[in-house]
Each structure stands twice: as structure tokens, then as C-alpha cells.
Design brief:
Low-confidence stretches: 1-15, 17-21, 241-260, 609-631
Number of domains: 1
CATH architecture: Up-down Bundle
Mean pLDDT: 80
Oligomer: single chain
CATH class: Mainly Alpha
Strand order of the largest sheet: 1-3-2
Largest sheet: 3 strands, mixed
Radius of gyration: 28 Å
Number of strands: 5
CATH superfamily: MFS general substrate transporter like domains
Shape: globular
Structural class: mainly alpha
Helix content: 55-70%
């Protein structure tokens, strides 16, 4: 072995600023040429520099779109007239809730039945919203553990249909002769419909997204341009549902099928238009019979598409596994001092106690039936779900157009317009404006290098919703000033012969809040659906969608606390308060989550791949095994 003296050793070379810069350039170059996880050989540089376009969806997605359309038509076609049905009494000479007096029908007559007043109406409508948005958790678990999404939707569509049939019977003239019985049947039908619609809701959107199986990849168009075929852009179009472009051009690389989901929601919501007129002219039982007939088609459509759908088999409840992971991570982090608890949650080692690698083989808890990769997915999914925690305050604003603004309209000059008709401007505005956003505004921003990311879009939604509420507060103030009666209860102001005597303000002025809320939905609600689906790991999509919907349930709980002040004489203060809250909470939301915009591509990769070590059979999944990774 040759040797040399200490003095013969080469002198150590100290790093220079130039060498540091060379290393940085080399590292950056390697990072720019790295392949994005879950893609088909797309590099980071290609992802950042090439234009992104949408891909195509298979034709089976049309059938999923119809299911959503029919469910939404039926839901909105019934709930849209709940406020009048519960709040207002039977019109003069009516036995079924219809306005039978010709003068009232051409003037300011409002349909009604039970006559329980504004607060009772508000409480029942709030309960309905709460229940229909809390039951998606049940639907997600059933789909993941037992039936899969297809069978879950099929079974609960039949349950939902039964509820609608009971609802129709509860509004028959014979039952309305006994208002307490009618009220009991109404609540019973709300419970059944809530279970059915909620369990459908948490599974339809993920099932539609699952019909698309494409990857992030490069394609060369006929023009010679190389572009990125982006699942994120595709799914954005799926849920935005910007389908009108196909009427004017066939050059877009997005199939008409892709435009199904959110447009189907709002086309279905237009079913409330017919319900408003039918309830006023023919009674509530007829108004509810029409959407019930449409919903009868859902089971048949599901059967027709059975052999064409991409179906996800039940593979165990990821929700229950996720809860166990969070519980194990939280156990050592919990402290009676909330500051210490928050500090521990933010620590980079927070999730370590839930990882199998944290323990030796001898000390590994029997309750751990997952691998480290699953814990990583739970951590990233929790980060994505944290975005939704602010949404209850957004839905507080939305809930006001779902009934209270209808009461506002009842105290204005109608001139033959049903007071609950104007609310349909919300879905109509969405149908008109979604193509504008998807095919004009968003692409224009992308071409100019402006990245209008989901966090920024949601923030914009909060601001516009707050503006809608401030508009409503100012409008209500002017109704008070112009009302012939001076008790600040416009909807109950009548002449000596019991004819409506409203404010002279034209009812169509109330269109402003409905249109503004529609714009806010495009920013906030549509984006939340997109965000939930793209950020969720493959097996957690139903659960994350249900968690997103659950925020509406939490909003309903907040609304329950506001029932005592949900009276017409306090509407101006109520609307104004919601407007301020939306702006303040939206700003806090943006400040908290703006850093997620920088991680958009990485977060989208969560839902693009499968975890290693996946075991398909449920019995094996649920057994604690420590000699291999079980997920």
C-alpha cells in the first residue's frame, strides 16, 4: 500500500461563489428535467412551458350526467317551493295551495299551504339542508366498504324515489285539510329524500370523474403544436361543464360529454321554474308530481349504462382507516395548552407516530394496517380538506338565496310573477356564464401568464358572495322605507279584504343577489368540487367529496342558531352581517392557504396514481398484518 507524508496531501479546495452557483444551476437543470409523478414522461420544464388543453371523456359519462341532472331537477323542483308551502297560508278560496283568485294571480298573489310563518319555514328548510349534506358521509362509507359507487347510487335512487312519492301525497287537498298531518308527512319525506339524495351526491361526481382514465402527457396537434394533455384542465371542464362552445365551434379538444356535471346541476335546478308556476296555478302536489316523474327515469338509465361504466369495486372504508391514522398522530400531539397542540400539529414529525416505520417489528401496534405511503396520502389529503373548513361561512351567504330572498320578493310588487320564480336566475346565470369563464376568461388569463389558481378563485367567490349579501341588505332597507304597512313584515302586509299589499318596488330588482351568488359559485363552489377530486387519492375521492358537502351541513348548524333572528323585520341586519363575514373570512382563507398555490402540480399528483402494496380483497385489507404493507 503506497503511503505519503502529511505534507504530500493535496490542499483542500474551498468552495467558491462560482462553484456554488454552478452546483445550483446543475441542480436546477436536473430538477427541470425530472419526470412529474404520475405523468407519461412529462418533465417539469414541459409542464411549465407548454400549453395545457383538455382531453376527451368516454360516452358513458353522458349517462352519469343524466343521473345528476334528474336528481338535481327533482331536488330543486321540490325544495324551491318549500318556503311558500310552509310559510304562507292557503290563498283565498284555495284547497291545494294554488292562487285561484284571478286578480291575485295577475297581481301579487303568492302560493301557500301550511301557514306556519317565516321562522318555522326557515327552521325546516335549514334542517333539510343540514340532513341532505350530512348523509353523503353515509353514502361514501357504503360505497367504499360494501357496494361500490354504482350500486350505492342505484339503491339510494330507489329510496329517494319513495320519499318523493310520499311528498306528493302529503300535499294533496285531502291531507292539507289537516295541516299538522301534512307537516308530519313533509318532515318524514324530507328524511327519506335526504338519505337518498345525500348518498347519491357523494358518489355521482367521483363516478363521473372516474370515467376519465387519461394521464398527464404530451400530444402534437394537427397544427404541429406540442401541448400538454392535462387531466386537471379536463376535470376542470368536467365540473365547470362548459358545453355551449360546441354549438359554435368543433375545434376545441374537449368533447361535449366532458361538459356534463355542473351544467347538469344547474339545468336540473331550472326544474324549479316549472315548479313555481305549477304550484301557484295548480297546487303543490302537482308541482311535486312532475319532478317525481322525471326521477323515475334514473334507475332505468343506470341499468342501461351498467356494462359501460368504469366502476370502482368496494375496497374497505378509507374514512375509518384515515380516522385511525389521524388519531394515532394526534395522541402524542394533544395538550391542554392549545398553543402547544397547534405547534405539535405543525411540526414535521407530527405524522411519524402513525407510520409503521416509526416502530420496530416487535412494538408495531396491531391497529396499524397501512404503510408509510398511506400516511403520506392522509397528510396531504388533510391539507387539501383544510381548505373546505372555511366553506360553512360561504354557504351561510348561499343559504339566503335558498328561501329568505323568496320571502323578500313576496313583499315586493310581483305583477303576476311567482315570488319563488326569480330565484331561478341563479342556475340560469350559471348556465350562461360558465361557458364564458371556461372558454374565454380562464384561457385568456392562461395565455397572459396569469395563474388564476383554485385558492384565488375560491377567495374571489367569497368576495362576490359578500357583495351579494350587502346588495340584499340595502334592498331590504328600501323595502322597509316604501312598505305601506309599517311593521317591517312585507310578506304579510294585506288590505282590509285580505289582498296582498306589497312595497311598490319591482320584484325583479332582487335579481342582483341571485346573479352575484351565481358568479361566486363559479369561483368557489365549482372550484371546491374540482379541488376535492383532483387533490384526493384514488380511494379517498368519495370521502373527500362528502367532506366538502359536509361543510354545507355545518353551515346549516350555524343557521339553526340564527332562527330567532331570521324574521323579516331583521333581514337587513342579517344580510349585512353575512356580507361582512364573507369578506373577512374569505380574506383570512386567502392568507392562510395562498402557499398551496405554489404546490398545485404536486397536490394534483396525489390523486393520479395507486399506492404500492395495494391488496384488493376486503378481508385481507381489514386484517392487521405486519410482514407486508397493507393499505
Amino acid at each position: 500500500m503506497p503511503s505519503f507524508d502529511e505534507k504530500d496531501k493535496p490542499a483542500p479546495t474551498l468552495p467558491t461563489a462560482e462553484s456554488f452557483e454552478d452546483d445550483k444551476i446543475s441542480h436546477d437543470h436536473d430538477d427541470r428535467n425530472s419526470i412529474i409523478e404520475g405523468s407519461d414522461n412529462v418533465t417539469r420544464e414541459e409542464f411549465d412551458t407548454l400549453r395545457h388543453i383538455g382531453d376527451k371523456l368516454p360516452s358513458a359519462a353522458w349517462l352519469v350526467v343524466f343521473v345528476e341532472f334528474a336528481e338535481r331537477w327533482t331536488y330543486f323542483g321540490t325544495t324551491n317551493v318549500f318556503n311558500n308551502y310552509i310559510r304562507a297560508k292557503l290563498p283565498r278560496g284555495s284547497t291545494n295551495g294554488a292562487v285561484v283568485n284571478a286578480i291575485d294571480r295577475a297581481g301579487n298573489g303568492v302560493a301557500g299551504a301550511l301557514g306556519k310563518g317565516q321562522q318555522t319555514s326557515y327552521a325546516i328548510r335549514t334542517f333539510n339542508t343540514f340532513f341532505v349534506y350530512v348523509t353523503p358521509i353515509l353514502g361514501a362509507i357504503i360505497a367504499d366498504v360494501k357496494w361500490g359507487r354504482y350500486k350505492t347510487i342505484m339503491v339510494f335512487s330507489l329510496i329517494c324515489l319513495v320519499g318523493h312519492i310520499i311528498l306528493v301525497g302529503s300535499a294533496s287537498p285531502q291531507v292539507l285539510q289537516h295541516p299538522d298531518t301534512a307537516m308530519g308527512l313533509l318532515v318524514f319525506s324530507i328524511l327519506i329524500i335526504g338519505v337518498g339524495a345525500g348518498c347519491i351526491k357523494s358518489n355521482v361526481a367521483p363516478m363521473l370523474g372516474e370515467q376519465y382514465q387519461g394521464k398527464l402527457r404530451k400530444v402534437t396537434l394537427g397544427t404541429g403544436e406540442t401541448v400538454i394533455m392535462s387531466p386537471a384542465v379536463t376535470l376542470q371542464s368536467v365540473y365547470l361543464c362548459a358545453y355551449f362552445y360546441q354549438v359554435f365551434s368543433n375545434q376545441r379538444n374537449i368533447n361535449f360529454v366532458e361538459s356534463g356535471f355542473y351544467a347538469s346541476i344547474n339545468l336540473g335546478a331550472c326544474g324549479a321554474i316549472s315548479a313555481s308556476f305549477v304550484a301557484r296555478d295548480h297546487g303543490f302536489w302537482v308541482a311535486w308530481l312532475i319532478p317525481t316523474g322525471i326521477f323515475c327515469l334514473v334507475p332505468g338509465v343506470l341499468l342501461i349504462g351498467k356494462k359501460y361504466y368504469v366502476k370502482t369495486a368496494p375496497r374497505g372504508s378509507v374514512l375509518l382507516e384515515t380516522i385511525r391514522v389521524i388519531r394515532m398522530a394526534m395522541a402524542p400531539a394533544w395538550s391542554i395548552n392549545p398553543v402547544n397542540t397547534i405547534r405539535a400539529i405543525k411540526a414535521p414529525t407530527f405524522w411519524n407516530p402513525a407510520k409503521p416505520s416509526y416502530y420496530s417489528n416487535e412494538s408495531l401496534p396491531a391497529s396499524i394496517t397501512w404503510d408509510d405511503a398511506f400516511v403520506g396520502e392522509v397528510a396531504r389529503t388533510c391539507n387539501a380538506c383544510a381548505v373546505f373548513l372555511f366553506f360553512p361561512f360561504y354557504w351561510l351567504c348561499y343559504s339566503q338565496i335558498d328561501g329568505n330572498l323568496s320571502t323578500v320578493t313576496a313583499g315586493m310588487t310581483l305583477r303576476g310573477t311567482p315570488n319563488d320564480l326569480i330565484g331561478n336566475l341563479n342556475p340560469i346565470a350559471i348556465i350562461i356564464m360558465v361557458p364564458l369563464f371556461d372558454y374565454v376568461i380562464y384561457p385568456m388569463l392562461r395565455r397572459r401568464g396569469i395563474n388564476f389558481t383554485p385558492i384565488k378563485r375560491i377567495y374571489a367567490g367569497f368576495l362576490v358572495a359578500g357583495l351579494a349579501m350587502l346588495y340584499s341588505a340595502i334592498l331590504q332597507h328600501y323595502i322597509y322605507l316604501t312598505l305601506p304597512c309599517h311593521d317591517n313584515i312585507p310578506s304579510e302586509c294585506v288590505t282590509t279584504d285580505d289582498a296582498p299589499w306589497p312595497s311598490p318596488l319591482n320584484a325583479w330588482i332582487v335579481a342582483g343577489p341571485y346573479i352575484l351568488v351565481a358568479i361566486s359559485e363559479i369561483f368557489a363552489s365549482v372550484t371546491s368540487i374540482e379541488y376535492a377530486f383532483t387533490k384526493a387519492p384514488t380511494r379517498m375521492k368519495s370521502v373527500v367529496m362528502a367532506f366538502s358537502s359536509f361543510q354545507s351541513a355545518l353551515s346549516s348548524l350555524l343557521n339553526f342558531a340564527l332562527v330567532p333572528v331570521s324574521t323579516e323585520d331583521k333581514f337587513a341586519w342579517l344580510f349585512g352581517s353575512f356580507g361582512v363575514v364573507a369578506v373577512v373570512i374569505g380574506t383570512i382563507f386567502f392568507l392562510v392557504f395562498r402557499d398551496l398555490d405554489r404546490k398545485e402540480a404536486e397536490l394534483n399528483a396525489i390523486g393520479s396514481g395507486k399506492r404500492e402494496g395495494f391488496v384488493d380483497e376486503i378481508p385481507e385489507m381489514m386484517k392487521p398484518q405486519h410482514d407486508k404493507a397493507i393499505i
